[in-house]
Amino acid sequence: MFRRKLTALDYHNPSGFDHKDETEFRNFIVWLEDQKIRHYKIEDRGNLRNIPSSEWPKYFQQYLQDVNCPFTSQERQESVDWLLGLAVRFEYGDNVEKYKNCQPATTTNKAEKPTDPLIHLDSSDPDFKAGVMGLANLLKIQRHDDYLVMLKAIRILIQERLNPEAISKARQSKEGLPVALDKHILGFDTGDATLNEAAQILRLLHIEELRDLQTRINEAIVAVQAVIADPKTDHRLGKVGR
């Protein structure tokens, strides 16, 4: 399940690691912190090293919070995968010279170019699920039973909201246009000219907020339609539908 990352980190038993075994899991967390992550000072690792303690789950939850892990101790599989990813990044940072000359694996047949990169993803793979869930939590995207659907929603959000043009536009300050209040009918009279003007301004601001809300609703509808309009396809069977 975590074999590739464990192998990259030189774990002693990458193929046989069982995160469901409580003792093995606790020893693994201690090894990961001592050897790879090293977030705590040595003298502050005592609680994690106290493996037989009944308070250990509480200390582990605090550890996850301290390293800014988006998962809780109850989400063991996801949290293990996230911690492994963090450890791999630290391992690379500590050994840049060792890894910088490594050549990425390339496909021998250049003619095979998939039309959709999601086609060859294994949505049942625990590493894939943990990665998608981490992105969804980071981007505040609603969870879905189908992880490919969540990944498509993440892709749409990144393409539409996190591209350089959208970010640049969001950073630009909005300058309002002058408005002649006397051309807008308030509909009631407070008996005070100053209060009447304030009421007109509040009404115009409210109308602007409603327009912005309608725009956001329209964008949400378009995004949802882009996800659900595509029928569920099993690419391995070459069939559409269940």
In short:
The chain is an all-alpha fold. The protein has 10 helices and 2 strands; from the N terminus they run ααααααααααββ. A hairpin with a 4-residue loop joins β1 (233-234) and β2.
Distance between the termini: 27 Å
Uncertain segments: none
Number of domains: 3
Proportion of strand residues: under 5%
Main beta-sheet strand count, sense and barrel state: 2 strands, antiparallel
How many β-strand runs?
Answer: 2
Family: Belongs to the RTRAF family.
Organism: Esox lucius (Northern pike)
Pfam family, one: RLL
Protein name: RNA transcription, translation and transport factor protein
Q: What does the model show?
A:
It comes from Esox lucius (Northern pike). This protein has a two-stranded antiparallel sheet with strand order 1-2. The protein has 3 domains: 1-101, no CATH class; 123-173, no CATH class; 178-229, no CATH class. The chain has helices at 3-8, 22-37, 46-49, 56-66, 76-94, 96-99, 126-139, 147-161, 164-171, 193-228; strands spanning 233-234, 239-240. It is an all-alpha fold and 242 residues long. The chain contains 10 helices and 2 strands, in the order ααααααααααββ. It starts with a helix and ends with a strand. A hairpin with a 4-residue loop joins strand 1 (233-234) and strand 2. The model has no long low-confidence stretch (mean pLDDT 79).
